[in-house]
């Protein structure tokens, strides 16, 4: 870095004084908070509507991840073509309408399982498009050298939302069934208003003529196929995320159905685990500066397997919460690292499409995992299901360690903290 470059970087304001980033961060934090409240209530709602069916919990979870397999690709092209501000605004407005419908039909007592699944899918679809647009917009409102810090703060934002949103959602759900969805709709409203005050130009940087959808997607696919490390890491992360569905659904089934504990207990467990996720997000940059990406990923999957095995023998909500908190610490650390790697190696004009393709690959596994987890928990209950998932996670970590491109994966030097 030259003296001129160093002077320019030093003159740039820190993220805490970047007005556009703060508006974007705050508005989307409220949306994440609302999404966390609603998402933790959807399985409980499905359990209530279905009369206690674990398969209904699996269907609700599948409805939340299935749109990622359907919406990701067109969303990526949309984000690369259109004004990201308009995309995020209309997604926020759409979420207000969907969440309002959930709350209204629930209050009137006319919410059935079919309608619930459709509304879950609609909200998640809008959230996917809005999140992709925001991820690309961050590159516009934040200087390149501050991108790792910005993505770390975004990860921390999601973890804080999980820490507060999960317990808040279950408490509100216990108090009045429709209230979490009203609160989530208000968060989306604030996000829509914040977007009006962002000064940065969030339109597409590319001036190339628009082509057929499949041609735009093929450009991103060709680029992704040429990235050995990224191409190899995606299936690994996909399988790990699919196996994580057993833990997520298992908490609901084990605590509420098998142990007969109050629904608010789930909020306690999620609150404890959220603390771990927040710690992981806040320390992610520290680990990135000291350990290569391969160690963070392979080591993280190995530790996940050990913790999932321990969760199978946990005797109460406190132990489950602590073990899940440790999983969240690990997941947040390698989540930040892999996000920084993908964003920094991807050309600006392909950001939306590459993120969409990556998200689609992960979503396909997650969707399959959500379906399988429901059936697994229904057939074998919580303990054996967690042991099966832990064993498969060991295999996943071992396969990742055997892939040369994964072992050699490194975050670009320019994006490493402290570089």
Could you outline the blueprint of secondary structure elements for this entry?
Elements: H1 3-11, H2 19-50, H3 54-81, H4 84-108, H5 113-141, H6 147-175, H7 179-195, H8 213-225, H9 228-258, H10 264-290, H11 293-311, H12 317-345, H13 351-402, H14 404-407
Helix pairs in contact: 2-3, 2-5, 2-6, 2-7, 3-5, 3-9, 3-13, 4-5, 4-7, 5-13, 6-10, 6-12, 9-13, 10-12, 11-12, 11-13
Describe the structure.
The chain has helices spanning 3-11, 19-50, 54-81, 84-108, 113-141, 147-175, 179-195, 213-225, 228-258, 264-290, 293-311, 317-345, 351-402, 404-407. The chain is built from 14 helices and no strands. Residues 1-11 have low confidence and may be disordered. One of its GO terms (cellular component) is plasma membrane.
> Termini distance?
10 Å
What is the class in the CATH system? Mainly Alpha
The general outline is: globular
Domains, number: 1
Full CATH superfamily name: MFS general substrate transporter like domains
**What oligomeric state is this?**
single chain
Beta-sheet strand percentage?
A: under 5%
Number of strands: 0
Q: Helicity level, as a percent range?
A: over 70%
Order of helices and strands: HHHHHHHHHHHHHH
Here the CATH topology equals Growth Hormone, Chain: A
Q: What structural class results from the helix and strand content?
A: mainly alpha
- Major sheet: none
